[in-house]
């Protein structure tokens, strides 16, 4: 009998069931790119509350803010790119609906994840010095270099470790054990999110056998090793409406509809919610298909 | 060829901001900065390293938003952060507000705790401004943009960098602020914003009137140079034949 590593496949509901209110959850991808949206939609529908969300944000932050899930938000930006300002995020900020706000420089954010991944309390960096990032986050400290540089002693930002209870990331392919590859142009920081987290849940477009991961793509595309992963979920079109290049690009038409509803009246949002977000992932995907069929007619 | 538009003047002024940079990564945010950087690469500084704005270094100089050019490198976001810290980079960012001391805001308008208008967030501005050369592009010069004091300091101007100590000041390099009316820098007294040149057809008084703080304007302010014939051909025939630049600086603002 040959013994294989564990099969980590699970359902979306099992992922959400393993999370708890009050947790710190990191969400991979970048802005409107390769976001684990199927898992985010499930979080949106869940009973979980008081979450700390850590994200280079897009509609993931917008949706969770709209559902009142976020107690503390750690971000450097929230944007839909082709629509620069995220209406649900704007609405939440302007009505002070998110109690605690931690706005960082986007490089500091990476450094904070690196510190957590390396099990360090902080890592030094220049970013933040002189800016209001340090004014608005007075708990972020500086550290004095023990070395002299050009006759001066430098005082740097001690970027605190961004430790995560759980990371949610979406890649193109994985095997059942959690080895996963990205096939698009940019890995983003999904490996770093995984290493900064206590538990990592990985959604993918397709689960293939291990040999299939490198059959038509170079080994360098294997971004995530199974030792970083606790659960694997196959969610086809699961990054929708963000990009998941080369499987699909951003659904600009749908994003427009999302932004219009998010920036519209309460009734507009309720209608969007009822049509797309009230049911499970399968009914979401079906509603999106119907939306496009209608628009194409 | 003297029938240039204000957008063309802005493009060549932006190109001039990158002409002495040598072999570094030019990172333009927004349409006119992208046009200006590509113009610089085709004229004054062919050594510039440019990207598609996503994750590829481009060997050629394609038209705005065109794809399929020869690739010369890979620059995913994680490597962008490496280059920021390494320093061989000049970024031209947008600015919702710029103040008298060259601080920039793209984070929020009003009180940070509950803004009247939430913007993008500070993005990479805090890190950019203490690590690599940074310029700003302002498509609509007005007292709403050029304010006495920004509501949130995202990008750090030289005075605040010096106050924050040698680690902040060491690589702080706010190079140019190019607007639809003028070229400015932070070479005024006490590290304040200074008028470098006014675009053809614009007076110093026009710029002063559209600036919400006391602008340092030397006695003799030169006029921003006119685009050359070569530049106009490159802009119109090659880089921006569809006239996308007029979305940021409308054609009505053509020189008189």
Walkthrough of the structure:
Chain B: Keywords: Transferase. The complex is a heterodimer of chains A (297) and B (256). With 297 residues, chain A is α/β, with parallel strands linked by helices. Helices cover 32% and strands 24% of the residues of chain A. In chain A, strands 1, 2, 3, 4, 8, 9, 10, 11 and 12 form a nine-stranded mixed sheet that branches. Chain A has a three-stranded antiparallel sheet with strand order 5-7-6. Chain A is globular. The mean pLDDT of chain A is 97. Chain B is an alpha/beta fold and 256 residues long. Chain B is 27% helix and 22% strand. In chain B, α2 crosses α8. The radius of gyration of chain B is 18 Å and the shape is globular. The model of chain B has no long low-confidence stretch (mean pLDDT 96). At the A-B interface, α4, α5, α6 and β7 of A face α3, β9, α4, α5 and α6 of B.
Order of helices and strands of chain A: HEHEHEHEHEHEEEEHEEEHHH
Q: Helicity range of the residues of chain A?
A: 25-40%
Assigned CATH class of chain B: Alpha Beta
Number of strands of chain A: 12
Please report the distance between the alpha carbons of the first and last residues of chain A: 56 Å
Coarse structural class of chain B:
alpha/beta
Low-confidence stretches of chain A: none
Mean pLDDT of chain A: 97
Cα shape of chain B: globular
**What spatial order of strands do you see in the largest sheet of chain B?**
1-5-10-12-13-14
**In CATH terms, what is the architecture of chain B?**
3-Layer(aba) Sandwich
Oligomer: heterodimer
**Mean pLDDT figure of chain B:** 96
**Whole-number count of domains of chain B:** 1
Based on CA atoms alone, the radius of gyration of chain A comes out at: 20 Å
Please give the largest β-sheet of chain B.
6 strands, mixed
Instruction: Choose one word for the global shape of chain A.
Output: globular
Distance between the termini of chain B: 14 Å
Beta-strand residue fraction of chain A: 15-25%
